[in-house]
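Folding Query — how this chain folds
Tokens — whole-number codes for backbone shape
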Amino acid sequence: MKNSIQIFIHDIKNIITNWVAIIIIGGLILLPSLYAWLNINASWDPYGQTEQIPIGVVNEDEGATVRDEKINVGRDLVAELKKNKTLGWQFVNRSKAMDRLEYGEYYAVIVIPKNFSEKLGTVMSNKPEKAQVEYYVNEKINAIAPKITDKGASVIVDQITRKFVSTVNGIIFDIFNKIGIEIGEKRPDIERFENYIFTLQDRLPEINNILNETSEDANHADNMLKRAKGLIPEVKNATANGIEIIDQTTSFLNEAESRLNKISPKVDEDLNKIQTMTKRVNDFINSINSADVDITEGNPVGSNVTGQINDALQSITVIENALHQLQETQEGNDETINRALSEVQAIRQSLEKLSDQVNSVNSYLEAKQAEVDQLFSSIKDRSAKVNERVNAFVKEYKETIEPTVRNEVAKAKDTLTSARGILADVQSAIPEVQGILNRTSDNLSSGKKMLKNVMGEFPYVNEKVNQLANRIRDIQGEMSLGELINILRHDPIAEKGFFEEPVVLNENKVFPIPNYGTGMTPFYTVLAIWVGGLLLISLLSTDVHRSELSYTEKQVYVGRMLTFLTIGLFQTLIVTLGDMFILNVRIAEPFWFVLFGLLCSLIFVMIVYTLVSVFGDVGKALAIVLLVLQIAGAGGTYPVVLLPKFFQVINPFLPFTYAISLMREAVGGIIWEKVLHDVLLLVVFGLLALILGGLLKGPIDKYTSKVKEKGKESGLFH
């Protein structure tokens, strides 16, 4: 170990005392820092400079008319993009845009076609079509630029979509709000409608019964119509016969009226005669009672009275015949005529009795003088009664019977005339009735067909009404009408704003990194430390060229390693401190950032030094190969899961994997469990390098020395 330290001290003296060595070593210390700083600065904030990427925008949209309102989405989009500084939008025509795209002046071109607004407007039709935006990208210019321009195109599409969805939803929610207001106003009607549906559901069995009964009634009505149509001829005959009978009856009444007019004077005359006769009889009786006359002298007068009574009886017969004729005219229904006949018959009977008594007087005058006075008294009374009854009958006949008979005949004629007019109207209406019956029959047939169709559709209606009623109950169970109205009656402007950006990303950075350059600092710093080690093994020798002293291979290996490690530590100090103070990289844990960098430097220098010390120029190649593998497979730029399978497999076996992870802990914030894990594995890599160098330096050096000599002979290797 003493010799190893002696080698180290001697190397330091040689550097200090040789100005050329100082310059070279100074360059070796500074160069890795430049490599890191330039790369970190170059990638400091590339995505914050995207407004410098020129992208052509061609608007060919001709607009459209949607519901009598003109729209031009392309024009509105251009106006929005002019305010958008995300990318370098260039508004040109198609020809110029495509030329500049081909020559690399534009990274991409976005074309809004002529029918863009028209296609968007189809959302209001039954067959909506998606609008398309044409996107052209020149992928030859740069590998990253197309990804950025793709994002820009996506931003445009998202902006259009968001604006479109916002507008459409604004219209929809405005309609919903109006619907909600209208539903609120119509809520009583809606609730009544719901009750109607429930009532209809409850009455469906009753409706079914009514339909069946109506069908039976229709069949019965059809049969009645058929019978009624069959009775039309009979009605025609009956009407004609009725008119004929009325005409005959009217003729008979006219004849009866004529006879009445003829016999009326005769009846009046006979009544006057009867009245005169009864008066004379009465006077005769009075004269007998008032005079002292010999009974036997009264025979001539009695004969005269008997003759007058017989004349009166003849007049009574004439009156009876006239009354019988009137009775036949009235068909025996007139109570007045019947009563008059009874009176006349009573008068007849009284006159006949009077005549018999007068005859009895003449018979008994001579035989029964004593009874004469009594008989005359009886005759007087009866004569008075007859006279009174005759006078009453004459009065009743003239004042009641004859006017009543004439009035009844006139009324009968009027009734018959009216009846004949009615029958004539009926007769004239029969064709119309027949037409009505035919039309009714046709309508009834149509109604039966419709009823049959209704009955055929009733099961479907029954099912749908039940489904509707049950669905209404389900909806009422899920949401009341009031809740629905509250949902619909929202502020359409607020709803439009919500759907324009329904989800707001609430970003919470657990370990915040201010920019892309800071995020890449761990990778480029670790890479610079490894590159620093490569520079050392490229310019400095791993052997000791002092002939006056003799050192073993292990002493040389350890002694010269100390020199390499010292220079490597200076390289790392410059890199890490420069990251913080020159580039102003924000480091969460600056002390640990420097310390972790120094640890990485020790491990990396051990690895590359051991490779070159043991394997010579082959070791240099191995160190470079290992660098290449680590750049691609350590996950410094892309997540390991995005790498090909090969790199995912070798990732756990690469020192960069743990070095970058360790430096990221210092940059973003330390999780000590991860730090201990990474430090432990890095130490393992360092120990493996020491073990490899300690065990293989001597044995392999015998073979590699011959290779070195042979390489020097070529004049190309030192």
